[in-house]
Amino acid sequence: MRDLLLGVPPKDFDVATDAEPEQVVEVFGRKARLIGRRFRIAHVRFGREIVEVSTFRADPGTSEPEADTRELDDAGRVLRDNVFGSIAEDARRRDFAINGLYYDIADACVHDYVGGMDDVSACRLRLIGDAGVRYREDPVRMIRAVRIAAKLGLTIDEPARPPGELVGLLADVPAARMFEEVLKLLMNPAGPRVYRMLRDYGLFTPLFDQTAAVLDSAAGAASEALIEQAITNTAARIEADKPVTPAFLFAALLWPAVRERAAELERGGMPPAPALASAQSDVVGRQIQRVAIPKRFSIPMREIWHLQPRFHRRRGKQPSRLIAHPRFRAAYDFLLLRAGVGEVEQELADWWTTAQNDPSTPAPGSGASAPGKARKRRRGGRRRRTESA
Predict the structure, then answer these.
(1) What are the residue ranges of helices labelled H in the chain?
(2) Which pLDDT belongs to residue 151?
(3) Which whole-number Å values give the CA distances from 52 to 24, 38, 110, 122, in the listed order?
(4) Catalytic residue among 59, 90, 95, 157
């Protein structure tokens, strides 16, 4: 409802009802299935779409303490909340007021129990209830505040701004859930604004602590620029309805930490190639404790990193072999990012840009022709040696 009121095309629609999850399954039969433990909801198939159907839940703040049957951990995070209630109670237990607006399809009207319409008019994101309590219930609300504000062009109300003392709670959120949240944060047209807000509010560190350490160092400016450009490029591709992959984005987000770790290992005497491979394992191994990265993305991510040193090998058959690699295009795009921030010479990126389209591009300083012509000369040379034998 909030998106429609703010003039933003909604990506999907959620349905809320007073029917309990099991009753929803009874109505829709095989088209419905129950998911979730913390919040039990029903997914209903509607053609090729999945409609999320949730049941109105009670607002624990309006009941006696002994009536609050939610399960909380020691930090106050909600582990299970399946206490059902009325639509008014459901609205009051939402995170932000603009998320507490309900469109009644029967009466064709909007129900507002928490002042959400006023916030829409003021372009304001306001938290329902006490920030300390609400963010402890679900720390992900802190990064959700940033995502919603950036996407809809809202100003975060002062009491709703993520408190610095609670930011560390994000480290306790399951890594698999954090992966999904990171995709929502950065793989959208508002990704560049989201990233800046994450940095401003200190929310980037609990997500990517190794990278944040590099960015906050004296030499972090180039790494910051690389990440910002990667996110900007991703946003532009999404806007243009072009394909994007989390592998490339994660490659950029973790590259500063990988490069720093590899340099540290080299200073300890390890050769460059083993140092890069070891650094990848070290960084990814730590990162997946915070934000899980499925193998279908982590494998191509590591291939992008692994191919970077090969761009410096421009003689003989090596360029042809690299161009034929299935991950070449992604690795080449990553090389352009690195050249754009001065991490490698622009001449190197320009050479590979030309080499893809002009097979006669010579290797620098060699006078040799392109890979294709070099192969012909070598084959010819082998024939002459055979004939003279």
Answers:
(1) 2-5, 21-28, 87-92, 116-122, 131-137, 140-152, 175-186, 191-200, 209-215, 221-239, 246-267, 272-287, 295-307, 318-323, 328-340, 346-357, 371-388
(2) 93
(3) 11, 15, 19, 29
(4) 95
Residue recorded with tokens 């991490």: 343
Residue 357 binned pLDDT confidence (cut-offs 50, 70, 90) = confident
Query: Angle CA(169)–CA(174)–CA(177) in degrees, nearest 5?
Result: 110
Q: Which two tokens stand for residue 93?
A: 């237990």
H or E element, residue 52:
strand 49-55
Beta carbons within 8 Å of 354's beta carbon, 6+ residues apart: 361
Task: Determine the Cα–Cα distance for residues 212 and 205; give it in Å rounded to an integer.
Answer: 5
350 is an active site residue: no
Q: Which two tokens stand for residue 268?
A: 């300890």
Taking 90 as the threshold, does the pLDDT of residue 63 lie above it? no
Cα gap 212→199, rounded to integer Å: 9
* Burial of 268 from C-beta contacts in 10 A (0-12 / 13-18 / 19+): exposed
Residue 314 phi, psi dihedral angles, 5° rounding: -120, 20
* Residue 386 pLDDT > 60: no
- 46 contact partners, CB below 8 Å, separation of at least 6: 31
Query: Smallest Cα–Cα separation from 35: which of 16, 49, 19, 54?
Result: 54
For 179, 181, 287, 299, 321, the CA distances from 324, given in Å and listed in that order, are 31, 35, 31, 18, 5
One of 14, 73, 172, 216 is an active-site residue; which one?
Answer: 14
**95 noted as active-site residue:** yes
Q: Could you give the CA distance from residue 149 to residue 122 in angstroms, rounded to a whole number?
A: 13
Question: For residues 201 and 130, what is the distance between their CA atoms, to the nearest angstrom?
Answer: 18
- 14 is an active site residue: yes
pLDDT tens per residue across span 71-117: 555 655 555 566 788 999 999 989 999 999 999 988 889 999 999 99
